[in-house]
Write a structure and sequence with these properties.
The chain is α+β, with helices and mostly antiparallel strands. It has 4 helices and 2 strands; from the N terminus they run αααββα. The model has no long low-confidence stretch (mean pLDDT about 75).
């Protein structure tokens, strides 16, 4: 057997920054909206990962999960503002709620 070569392990920040470079350098994009959404999500994840305080990092990640798992629509009906929140990713949403409760219990 030959010894397998191990690639150097990149940090999550380096990996996510690499994704941004690839997204910025693509010439053939499937849809601009999809790539814009992905780029925004990755940028948010990078910001969370670069937070030095572990508790703040966890809180930011949980809030990011809630943002990504829900869709908020605000409409005006009969001069009243109506806000409708739709959960679009149930498992992620429920995980985030469990994490919020765990963080609140630890305080």
């Amino acid at each position: 057997m030959t010894a397998s070569k191990k690639r150097p392990r990149l940090s999550p920040v380096s990996q996510l920054q690499g994704v941004l470079v690839v997204l910025d350098g693509r010439t053939k994009i499937p849809t601009a909206e999809l790539l814009s959404t992905i780029r925004g999500m990755v940028s948010d994840a990078l910001a969370v990962l670069q937070e030095p305080d572990a508790t703040k990092q966890k809180i930011a990640f949980v809030l990011l999960a809630i943002q990504q798992s829900t869709e908020v629509v605000v409409r005006v009906v009969r001069n009243k503002e109506i806000t409708r929140v739709t959960v679009i990713d149930q498992p992620l949403y429920h995980w985030a709620l469990r994490e919020i409760h765990a963080l609140a219990g630890a305080a």
